[in-house]
Amino acid sequence: MTEKVYMRELTEQEMTEIYQSHLVEDFPAGEVKPLAHMLEGRKKGQYEAYGLFEKDTLKGYAYFIKNSTQPAALLDYFAIVRGLRSAGYGSLFLKKLQAMCIEQQKQLILEVENPDYEMREDKKVLMHRRIAFYQKNGMQLSGVTCNFYDNEYRIMYAGAHCEDTKVQEITMNTYLNFFGADVVRKRAVFHAL
User: Fold this and answer.
1) Distance CA 175, CA 81 (A)
2) Which of 52, 71, 118, 123 could form a disulfide with 93 if both were Cys (CB 3.0 to 4.6 A apart)?
């Protein structure tokens, strides 16, 4: 990597192209939101996406749900382009995203698949590696878990210690703000460990 690595907000066209050529391949089908939902959220100021570039070539992408009711952002999708993983781009990108959230005075949170609910050992190992990656790069694992749209998640956050009740409140409010009360009431169940 060189000093030519930079992060910038993605255009709507770039969001669409990355969604179609990367995101739908990088995440399980049950976790992928419809593109139209993301673009509608973007128009309402509730959704944004950033890319990590080196010499104008995409290296990674991050899609966020923005919370307009409190200073928080949920890292909805985060991935490094296939073939470039384990080369340091993920750590660099996550640090840039954390710095951006600090600058904007936003609490950064994210969902990570909960390995406690996975039966296959190979998938469980990958889930633990993902959690370890985030922890190595400054994210804290809270005691909050959530079943959302039939996916089991652990909630992580950036920065200093945050009480689980606060992490759950931020996550719930972010869901409510983006998805609406009906969806959250029907599809989200929070638990504390």
Assistant:
1) 27
2) 52
The CA-based angle 81-68-143, given to 5 degrees, is 65
Residues sharing a CB contact under 8 Å with residue 101, sequence separation 6 or more, in sequence order: 73, 107, 108, 158
| Domain range for 149 | 5-192
In angstroms, the CA 38 to CA 41 distance is: 5
CA-based nearest residue to 7, from 38, 40, 51? 51
Could you tell me the mean pLDDT of each successive run of 10 residues in the chain, 193 residues long? 86 98 94 95 96 96 94 96 94 97 94 95 96 97 95 93 94 95 95 77
Q: How many domains does the chain have?
A: 1
pTM of the model: 0.92
How confident is the model at residue 160, as a pLDDT? 82
**Beta-carbon neighbour count of residue 74 at 10 Å?**
22
What are phi and psi for residue 175, nearest 5 degrees?
-60, -50
